[in-house]
Amino acid sequence: MSREKAYRNLEAIYEKSCDDRALLFQHPDDYDKNRDFKEEDLEILKKRDFKTRLFICTTTILGDSVFLSTHFTDNLKHQTHFNFVRDYVKTLIMTKNWTAATSVLTDLLTMVFKMEPSAYNTFACTLASALSDEAANTDFEVSDELLRYKADAVIYRRKFIVLMRIIFDKISTKRFLVDNGATNIYRDIHCMNKVDRSNWAFAYFFFCFLLQICLVCYVIVQNFGEICEFQSAISVTGVVEDECILKVTWYKIFAKNPEMVPLALLSTIFSAMRAHVEMTEALKISYFYGSNYLLKSIDLIVNVALPFILLITGFTLITTAPSFIDAVLNATALGYISAIDDMLPGLLQLPEAELIMNCLIQESIEQFLDMTELSDEEINGMFNTSDPLNNIHFNDIYVTNMPEQGNDIHLGKIFMPHFVKKGKVLGDVVVGNSEFVTDHCLLRRVEWRYTKGFPKTSRPRVAYLKIWKLNGEVLEVKQKDVAVEDLDWDMHQSVEGVYIITVFQMSESVILLRLCGSKSVDDFECAFKHYSLWDFDKSADKLLSKTKGQVIMAPLSDSIHGEKVPTAENQRERRKSFFEASLSTTSIFE
């Protein structure tokens, strides 16, 4: 099939399936040749918004079965391989072949796990926009093989959301455990047991637990042994007043060895910092064990209870040391005890990243198979709850026409958060890249106007850009010697809520501009956490917390709600509850 015939076939499929919106086609070949729009295309362009949409079809056209729609085209050139997403959906809705489904699921997860960070972020932004507002930005081909009746689009979209939630939940867990280094021997043993049911692995687990408990018990005995000795000595001399006992104990700890107090204080502060991290990690990741309550309980004991005990007893242990070297050894030993479970995987040369990813793939297969047992009524019932993950609002905005892609250093393409600041010169604006989202990246409103030099161009540039930052600053980026009032503008050429710039390239005018964000702070934070997008620094967290609850923009129309779940058998209810619980992991990271 020729490329021209293939594109005509795609346009016919679109027109049959998406007859409720104005369609516009600029195919990848057109982009490469920089063709101009026709007059009728320009009229259609005025009716189109700036949302990024997905179109999933059964027909493979020139190697693609998933197509991206932006303001400029319904067939955007894209770098990400979205066909796995189509195959993943197809196996559930069409073929119902669970062997094929699990194979595609593991391929998709592996592909995402191995992605370069910017490639993942553009993939996640695109999917987040498609899944926004109960997947309102996702369309399916109307055909006997996929969507037979348009009335079924609602349940198809909800199934799509649940399918992708399995994927993004596993990505969140992998990012937390592997990328952030939150692993230990207990979590590794759980993964080993999940994949190959290795009973021998529990020997390491019991050894580590017994060693840590034994060391803590010795610390406690040593810490309180001298106090008991002093109490016995006081009883022999006939002095039994509680006040005297307290005076002797206080003197022993603080007065006898005052030179040890600085080390004790510094060690206690360091231990408190470490204990806070370990406790936070253990509480966040406790869901990871599922029904393995033994490992879950021991992980919580070792990383929540023991650090707290060592924090209390460590101070007195250091201050009662008989010499400086003993005090140093005591301080070092206290840090060593709580780190044993973190060090043991390295000593055993366990491939932690591979173990965790294999475990997550196994869990995703189990969740997928659980989902296949759910009826449409049960799927709809999941969306009648107040779970914020059911209806996250997110937009991926292509202000200028460009292919979807991550970083390409060789071509000078950068996809990452951009900060926007006032320059030192009056009226000057500084725009630069950032590895994470800062307070200077957060924008409340963005408004743009295109140049008028080439009115028919399919790759327009921005002559005027006005930015309202979330911190209250208002900045303007504009082409020199251009009167703003002479530039055309309509209501579609602006976004409002909480946004960041992800692509920015400028010469005299803005050549490339891409944004992403949400209508509210809650949606913005929820989307970034659920889809594992860029991290926030403390300044961004502080500004978002300060702004939370404020009305950023008018809310969208009410989302669609399905029918209530009818009463089901107890077995099905238990399976449904288990499945819902297994999909609620992302909320733990908030």
Explain what the structure shows.
The structure is a single chain. With 590 residues, the protein is α+β, with helices and mostly antiparallel strands. 51% of the residues lie in helices and 13% in strands. It has helices spanning 3-17, 28-33, 39-46, 83-95, 98-113, 117-130, 132-135, 153-179, 185-196, 202-237, 242-255, 261-284, 293-319, 324-347, 352-372, 376-382, 521-530, 538-547, 570-582, and strands spanning 53-61, 64-69, 138-140, 395-398, 418-422, 429-433, 443-450, 462-469, 474-478, 494-506, 510-518. The strands form 3 sheets. Strands 4-11-10-7-8-9 form a 6-stranded antiparallel β-sheet. A 3-stranded mixed β-sheet has the order 2-1-3, sandwiched between helices. Strands 5-6 form a two-stranded antiparallel ribbon. Strand 5 (418-422) and strand 6 (429-433) form a beta hairpin. Residues 243-248, 553-568 and 585-590 have low confidence and may be disordered.
